Amino acid sequence: MTDTANVVLHPSILALVSLSANIAANHPKKGLCQLERLRSLGVSDAQIDIVVDIARHLRDEAGQMIDSEFNEAFAPAANTAAEPAAVTEGSCCAPTAKGNSCC
């Protein structure tokens, strides 16, 4: 087992992780603090955009799955909700609409 007590993440990695978690969790603060931090650290908008895209995709995919399960329990014969993107065998998730891999 790795001792993580002495592991330090680069501030930009920490801010990217925090930003994606805020977006994926629909946190009320929306990750705006992390966005400011990332820009002050010189992280490009293109890199931030990839993280935001993946976080939104995971958030939306989770919501679709929850909605689908609810719809099946509520009205199995009338389930008209959009199904989440199919996950191909061997992959951990479907790519985002922009084509970014979340795996």
From TrEMBL:
Keywords: Plasmid. It comes from the Bacteria. The lineage of its organism: Bacteria, Pseudomonadati, Pseudomonadota, Betaproteobacteria, Nitrosomonadales. This is Uncharacterized protein.
